[in-house]
Specification:
about 110 residues, alpha+beta, Alpha-Beta Plaits, five-stranded mixed β-sheet, about 40% helix
Length: about 110
């Protein structure tokens, strides 16, 4: 199962961690994994390559995390449309394939 954790501070998303494997189909044929990967990587790339903000990013097998806790409040604000769009997209995948993905939101 994929777990998508989103952390907010003052109602602003400042980090996310996507971990695990969906297990919907074999690797290379797993549309749940593909959807989540495409959404999350596009948003991470948008933050770095379009907004020119440098988050802390960690990647690995079945892992993508992004943390903006070290950047300014103005930079976090600039990322909100992208991050809220990502959350909406991943929740849409969860609504259709909830057996394979879980979204967790946390206010810290």
């Amino acid at each position: 199962m994929i777990t998508a954790n989103f952390k907010r501070k003052h109602n602003k998303i400042f980090s996310f961690k996507i971990s695990g494997h969906a297990g919907y189909k074999d690797p290379g044929y797993d549309i749940v994994c593909s959807a989540v990967s495409a959404i999350s990587l596009s948003i991470a790339n948008g933050i770095t390559d379009i907004l020119y903000i440098e988050p802390l990013i960690n990647t690995g097998d079945g892992l993508l995390s992004l943390d903006l806790s070290h950047v300014s409040c103005d930079q976090i604000e600039k990322c909100q449309i992208l991050l809220e769009t990502m959350l909406l997209g991943i929740k849409t995948v969860e609504n259709e394939y909830g057996k394979y993905i879980k979204v967790v939101e946390e206010e810290v």
